[in-house]
Amino acid sequence: xxxxxxxxxxxxxxxxxxxxxxxxxxxxxxxxxxxxxxxxxxxxxxxxxxxxxxxxxxxxxxxxxxxxxxxxxxxxxxxxxxxxxxxxxxxxxxxxxxxxxxxxxxxxxxxxxxxxxxxxxxxxxxxxxxxxxxxxxxxxxxxxxxxxxxxxxxxxxxxxxxxxxxxxxxxxxxxxxxxxxxxxxxxxxxxxxxxxxxxxxxxxxxxxxxxxxxxxxxxxxxxxxxxxxxx
Amino acid sequence: xxxxxxxxxxxxxxxxxxxxxxxxxxxxxxxxxxxxxxxxxxxxxxxxxxxxxxxxxxxxxxxxxxxxxxxxxxxxxxxxxxxxxxxxxxxxxxxxxxxxxxxxxxxxxxxxxxxxxxxxxxxxxxxxxxxxxxxxxxxxxxxxxxxxxxxxxxxxxxxxxxxxxxxxxxxxxxxxxxxxxxxxxxxxxxxxxxxxxxxxxxxxxxxxxxxxxxxxxxxxxxxxxxxxxxxxxxx
Lengths: 231, 235
Fold this sequence. Notes:
The structure holds 2 protein chains of 2 kinds. By secondary structure, chain A is mainly α. Chain A has a single domain, classed as MetI-like fold. Chain A contains 9 helices and no strands. The radius of gyration of chain A is 22 Å and the shape is flat. Chain B has a single domain, classed as MetI-like (MetI-like fold, Orthogonal Bundle). In chain B, α1 crosses α9 and α2 packs antiparallel against α3. Chain B is flat, with a radius of gyration of 21 Å. Chains A and B meet through α3, α4, α8 and α9 of A and α3, α4, α8 and α9 of B.
């Protein structure tokens, strides 16, 4: 490498980097922003899904437009848009909040489809049976649809969280110091030897998705077992 | 507050149109790399040889397990450590394509596995080499299952090109950011690129639904009785 002043990190340096506070706090930001965005998205997805399923034309149209807009344009664009308009709207939100909101609004479109599919996935005969038993619409929704739809939603929603861990990397664009931004900062400071920083970031992204994969497996197994016990 | 004349001026600005072209060309090149490499990896992944399959699995894990943005940055930054500076477009399209290939390889693999084994065996009995079997027998049949996810992948690709702005490739989003530096009118400027993105993704959606109708999945009629399959050998 021509004119490289600092020596490469080497193995010990890389291991030290792996547990350095800067990296660990960036990992933590990645984890909690992903979880927060996913949780908000799941909540926002419910009214959207219900609007899609409703028989009211305007409601349907609104939901369709929302999905068209948010799925037809890049997430990164939405992120930067929210970040850019906040000062104009006079909202003095911290950057990270704008980022989480953008991630969540984008994800809500995907979640609405997952939730819709889960609601449709509940066997139609269940409605008829519940009707026959004299349950009200609200009771049917609350006692028949929600518990079963939740179980159907669990696997795809879990995959979405996995996606979200990676999607938070875009927060780097609005200079939220999560794992990718931190990697870039390191690489800027040590331009001659960027590889260890990328390797460390990749390691943590792997670790997150692997760890979540294990949790997800357990959750799904438990939901399935309970499902069998109830029926 | 909303300025129509600014909106129209920005919409028809030559730089905006050029940025849209840059977005489309990166998406097409990325998709071509993705489809080609995806088919290769998928074919290896569907084979019964253990070591090549493990290599494909590792590839998929690496590219699916880390964010695309990190990959783009790594493709651009890391080779410079070894004295190789990839041009922005090359690094970007390569990262987009290789990431996509990881996804498509699984699509191709499951598509190939969905083709009845008898087909392959019959072709082998006729004396075809395994490359011929893949090209002329299994891949065309698998295409029916592969087309919808590949179409979705291209739709996603049109949007993910926006990440190339990070390595200063001048696509639509970077164009918007640059304009924003001189004219701070985010509503109009983002509306402009939203129009471009929605036009692209919506137009592609229409093309895709025609393609899918052409390659209709399902139905019990054998493929031979439908329209003749276009040859997919060049893919």
